[in-house]
TrEMBL record:
Matches recorded under Pfam families: FemAB
Name of the molecule in the record: Serine/alanine adding enzyme
Swiss-Prot/TrEMBL GO biological process terms: cell wall organization; peptidoglycan biosynthetic process; regulation of cell shape
PANTHER family (UniProt xref): LIPID II:GLYCINE GLYCYLTRANSFERASE
Record Gene3D superfamilies: 1.20.58.90, 3.40.630.30
InterPro entries: Acyl_CoA_acyltransferase, FEMABX, PG_Glycine_Bridge_Synth
GO MF annotations in UniProt: UDP-N-acetylmuramoylpentapeptide-lysine N6-alanyltransferase activity
Family, similarity comment: Belongs to the FemABX family.
Enzyme Commission designation: 2.3.2.10
Length: 410
């Protein structure tokens, strides 16, 4: 153990340089994530080997608890070779020493270790053989596993993630029905734009609509602005936009022209007549759809935002963190088109994958089915661990934490 040196206050350049180039690179272990979690204290920990080379890092968030107690949390961390038992034992022995100084009850972690990867259409439970060895090492450092949980709500971070990995031509590999849905968006002239903080008002409005519809609490504009300001050019908002006024009046013009074509159609051209009548019925259906929407929007000739995504690139990863949609435009299929543009943005910037976020391990919920439209890979992570620091208080603290987590999701 004397071959390593532990530090607890690394500089950003060295810290991020290590994390961004590591196989376990994750936004939640970025240096700036501590600025986002501003209601927590933090440590930037690191381990150097005997040659002076940095071999491990960990952003440690510190939550203040009642009675001057604390909890340490390493979201998707630490970042190191988890199969290096000596390194793991050294790091957590040193971290526990600091934890005791902070009156820490427990250290929580949920490292980004994959124990299984498969296409969502090829569900299996054949975890990698290395899983057992990982579990042995975590046991050596005194970690208590929460189990191979199934549902998002059971742990701080989802254990199943839906990921789209780099493809040279992502659109060519989409399922047929997804291509059809994108054509639906094109037919309604849905346009995708991307930018920065100037889109925050529209994006926040769309997220609020999603909150109301799904009866969930996500985040507000101040939080989204904090993300954009903290990650700068690596943060992006995609908006899907459309102009209902333009669609409605073009449909009226098309209706008028079709009615004229039908009136002028020769009596013996029955096949052409049926085609024109089909087109007219389709156009009338669109008019019926667009008219009440336009009246509700104030009959204005302007583009409006109907769906949005906020994403952040960190290293060679892209996290699609938040999304919202105006449900009135569900038939416009805007999210399908904007997700594809988000993937392209990430891959053009050198990302190896775009993380669409957590799904239930059953893979049968609505969120999973939506994400399946993009032919994702499901990453099953090893799960959540606690390392009790104060063994006397740990059982009560664990119950209190779970109760707090449950109430925050109501």
């Amino acid at each position: 153990m004397g071959n390593y040196r532990f530090v607890k206050d690394m500089n950003q350049e060295e810290y991020d340089g290590f994390v961004k180039n590591h196989q376990y690179c994750n936004l939640l272990q970025s240096y700036n994530w501590a600025k986002v979690k501003k209601n927590w204290d933090h440590l930037y920990t690191g381990v150097y080997n005997s040659s002076g080379r940095l071999v491990g890092t960990g952003l440690v968030l510190i939550k203040q608890l009642p009675m001057h107690l604390t909890m340490f949390y390493l979201p998707r961390g630490p970042i190191m070779d988890y199969l290096n038992e000596d390194l793991m034992v050294f790091y957590f022995n040193e971290l526990k020493k600091i934890a005791k100084q902070h009156h820490c009850v427990m250290i929580k972690l949920d490292p980004a270790i994959h124990v299984n990867d498969y296409k969502s259409s090829e569900y299996n439970e054949n975890r990698y053989p290395s899983t057992e060895r990982y579990m042995e090492i975590f046991k050596k450092i005194g970690a208590v596993h929460y189990g191979f949980t199934t549902y998002i709500e059971e742990t701080a971070q989802a254990r199943y993630i839906s990921n789209v990995y780099y493809q040279e031509d992502i659109e060519a590999n989409l399922p047929k029905h997804t291509k059809r849905l994108i054509k639906d968006a094109d037919r309604r002239n849905v346009q995708i734009v991307h930018g920065g903080p100037e889109f925050l008002d529209d994006f926040s409005r769309l997220v609020a609509m999603t909150e109301d519809r799904k009866h969930v609490a996500l985040r507000d504009e101040d939080y989204f602005r904090l993300l954009m300001d903290t990650y700068g050019d690596d943060a992006v908002i995609f908006l899907a936009k459309c102009n209902v006024y333009d669609l409605y009046h073009k449909a009226l013009d098309r209706q008028q022209q079709l009615e004229k074509d039908i009136a002028d159609n020769p009596a013996n051209a029955k096949k052409k007549l049926r085609r024109l009548q089909d087109q007219l019925r389709s156009t009338e259906k669109e008019i019926k759809e667009f008219k009440p929407m336009l009246e509700e929007l104030g009959n204005e000739n302007k583009e409006i935002a109907i769906a949005g995504i906020l994403s952040i690139q960190y290293g060679n990863t892209c996290e699609m963190l938040y999304a919202g949609m105006d449900q009135r435009f569900k038939k416009f299929m805007p999210q399908y088109k904007e997700y594809i543009e988000n993937f392209k943005w990430a891959f053009d910037r050198g990302c190896k994958y775009a993380d669409m976020g957590g799904v239930e391990g059953t893979l049968d919920d609505g969120l999973t089915k939506f994400k399946d439209n993009f032919n994702p890979t499901i990453n099953e992570f090893i799960g959540e661990f606690d390392i009790p620091v104060n063994k006397l208080l740990y059982p009560a603290a664990k119950k209190a934490y779970q109760k707090m987590k449950a109430s925050s999701k109501k």
